[in-house]
Amino acid sequence: MGRLSAEDWARAALEALAEGGLAAVAVEPVAVRLGTTKGSFYWHFANRRSLIEAALALWEAGTEEIIAGLLEVPDPVLRMRTLLEFAFGDPVDAKVAFQLISAADDPLAAETARRVSARRLEFMGATLEEAGQPPGLARGRAVVGYGVYLGMAALHRVGAVDESIGDFMDLALSEMGLAD
Amino acid sequence: MGRLSAEDWARAALEALAEGGLAAVAVEPVAVRLGTTKGSFYWHFANRRSLIEAALALWEAGTEEIIAGLLEVPDPVLRMRTLLEFAFGDPVDAKVAFQLISAADDPLAAETARRVSARRLEFMGATLEEAGQPPGLARGRAVVGYGVYLGMAALHRVGAVDESIGDFMDLALSEMGLAD
DNA sequence: CCACCTCCATACGGTTGCGTATGGTTTTAC
DNA sequence: GTAAAACCATACGCAACCGTATGGAGGTGG
């Protein structure tokens, strides 16, 4: 593995967060995951808290990155479809979102989840408006669409639904009035 | 507080589960919550694991209880509306569902979440069928409706949406083709 | 080649939670 | 009223994890 950077630690922490929640973002277990020891960690970070912050920042940056890429897509309907492909194609994102919402007793986790969710809802709403939907309806459908995304990911995660990812996407599109 | 029963412990454990996840179902913290000590706990339970089992069983029993009550309502549309009133009126249930889904690395938590979710989806689907909807559509709408329920609870929990509970209910009803 | 800086391993003390042991207090049974 | 049962408090050993201290390996400039 060679020498490690702070970002290596942040990535590993984000993985741990997705799998085991905030409690799994623990120094020694993540060190094991990286094949190293605490000695390395406390060189790059002051404490466990700053590792959590780094992991959350990494996750939030991912959302901004995706949105920036989607802004290159001119057609709003295609843009929304592409967004859903990204969303349902990434199994980690919904897990992290879930873990953070569940860990809402942690102020930073709650605030990060709120900010990222709000950003996504705003982007989805704007795209639906651009597709010709009136503002109020666009907002409502964005909330429902993102809610379905989170809820479906949840049900899929525990095996309560068997429907394929593709079915979810078509369903979400039709819920938003964008059915083809 | 007087003397405690095993069910008192299970209830307190369920509260802790809703607020802090599986990790919060810890013997000593729950003892503090009850104003007692471990000595009481290990009289009623063999270990921490059995406390978790009791809390999960309590949660699952709640679903069955509600469904049993709803079976008394003859009209399927009214039955669905009553169900949603129960669902959105109980702030604890969705929290627990979320926590268990997040804690899906624990086999018992995952299996319980799966079983309860499947039971609810089945009940909702059957009710929609009884309301005159074709089976496939009824199933799909049940999945979407329950998914929205979970997702909305999540977004509401972190403050990403401000819409009132009542709005959620009307929205869910209209999504299921039961709008008045 | 050597002084220094970067990065990591190991050892230590402190905290929190699990599970056991043991004794004490309150209720119940007769 | 007393013996047994039910219930609870305290103290202990054990394990996981946090954060610190300290020293050592490996590259780099002079």
From TrEMBL, chains A, B:
Coiled-coil portions: none
Domain of life: Bacteria
Domain called HTH tetR-type: residue spans: 3-63
Example GO molecular function: DNA-binding transcription factor activity
A Pfam family: TetR_N
Entry keywords, A to Z: DNA-binding, Transcription, Transcription regulation
DNA-binding region as annotated in the record: 26-45
Keyword Amino-acid biosynthesis: no
PROSITE patterns: HTH_TETR_2 (PS50977)
Protein name, UniProt field: AcrR family transcriptional regulator
Source organism (scientific name): Planomonospora venezuelensis
